[in-house]
Structures are given as C-alpha cells and as structure tokens.
Amino acid sequence: MLLRRSFVPLALGVVLALLAGACTSDDGPKAARGPGPVDAGVIEEAQEQAEKTELRLEALEQAREAGTLGVTERVRNAPRPAGPAR
Question: pLDDT of 10-38, one tens digit each?
Fold first, then answer.
C-alpha cells in the first residue's frame, strides 16, 4: 500500500514533465499562414460582407427609432390587397 502511494506522485510528475517538454518544443509551425499574397476574391467577399453588415445595422437603427424593434404580431394567412374596402 505504501509503495502504491509513493508511486502516484512520481508518475504524475513524469507525466507533467513530458507534457511540459512537448508544449515547449520549437519544432512546430512558426505561423498559421504564410506571408503570401491574398486572393482578390477573398477581399471582394469581405467587402460584400461588410456592406451587408452595414445595411443590417442601418435597418436595426431604423427599427429602434420607429419603435418596431422586437415587436411581433399575429401572422396573417391571406392578407387582403390594398385598395378600396369591399
């Protein structure tokens, strides 16, 4: 029993030493991406996403100003077209 109790801290110390050695290795990759040029399609896609985000933020601000942000109402199955009442 005494042998088993003294073995656990020793084993734990060895495992921690191995993990520390593996985490500090210099053999891993230096950077996630290389310094190569960026594709023009990626830039265009990022610009389109930025434009869509800007439009959504503007719509959000308009809804806040109009007081309609988060307002819900009953769904109408067959709305009547606008025009003179029957």
Answer: 787 887 777 777 666 566 666 666 667 77
Burial 40-77 (b: 16+ CB within 10 A, else e): eeeeeeeeeeeeeeeeeeeeeeeeeeeeeeeeeeeeee
d(CA 65, CA 56) in angstroms, rounded, equals 14
DSSP letter at 55 equals H
Which residue shows structure tokens 């434009």? 51
Chain position carrying tokens 């921690």: 16
Mean predicted confidence (pLDDT) in 46-65: 95
